[in-house]
Amino acid sequence: MTTTHPASAPTPPLGRALCAMITPFTPSGALDLDGAARLADHLVREGCDGLVLNGTTGESPTTTDTEKAELLRAVRDAVGDRVRLVAGVGTADTRHTTELALAAEKAGADAVLVVAPYYSRPPQDAVEAHFRTVADTCGLPVVLYDIPARTGTRIETDTLLRLAEHPRITAVKDCSYDLLGVQKLLARTDLAVYAGCDEHNLALYAVGGAGYISTVANTVPGRLRAVLDAFDAGDTAGAARAQQRATHLIELTTSSGLPGAVTAKALLTALGLPAGPVRAPLLPASAETTAALLTAHEDLTAPAR
Length: 305
Known about the structure:
Elements: E1 17-20, H1 33-45, E2 50-53, H2 65-79, E3 84-88, H3 94-107, E4 111-115, H4 124-137, E5 142-146, H5 148-151, H6 157-163, E6 169-174, H7 179-188, E7 192-195, H8 201-206, E8 211-214, H9 221-232, H10 236-245, H11 247-254, H12 260-270, H13 287-301
Parallel strand pairs: 1-2, 1-8, 2-3, 3-4, 4-5, 5-6, 6-7, 7-8
């Protein structure tokens, strides 16, 4: 498979620039479907060509199955067929995960995102069986989500290589921090590999990745897409500069000790975009954190000097 991205290269089936969208809530903590529709439309107009709903940044552990389906339907109504919608369906329970995958398919998702089963820390043969069960049951393309820092379980490279043989397992969201393992996947499979950590967006794309699934894209969708656009246009130095300019906001959003849902919602609220509070056990960002995020956003979006 090719490891370059010429301007004429086809866009991956799920898009290149995907946002791991927050789930807006009302001030009382209820699901804000109108806000979700407005935010989704804004993100698409600002450059996202895919949205991931009900993922980590979407606070999936604290939304109900009914809310997950309602959110998906509301966003599908808002964006139509302009972008691909990927539904997070991963849980610690294989049976529950397959139920959510079938519900997402019914609600209009284009693909499902399945995280490694967490807490029980299954061995690799059980991890593989979990993913195969979901892929066998659901008729949608499956995106595997490797984020061992949260799940406690790595999807080992050899496991991913075997899973790549399944016709419905088509992509990986990578938060493994194992660039060698990712390059082995790119060299030996046709999987579309997406950076799940914003600091890796350009690095993974440069070695053949499909793009990114980004938390930071909630607040600067156009700035992150510009990194990929510059690279595709052959302006590798410009792509590097654009990635570097985003570094401070990336750090504050995803590496400041707070979950991305907390920081993204704080900044979205400060920018006047739909967000609302986070659900317990998460707590809102402090005024100081929000001010720092807003300053970093202003620095990034100011005209380049």
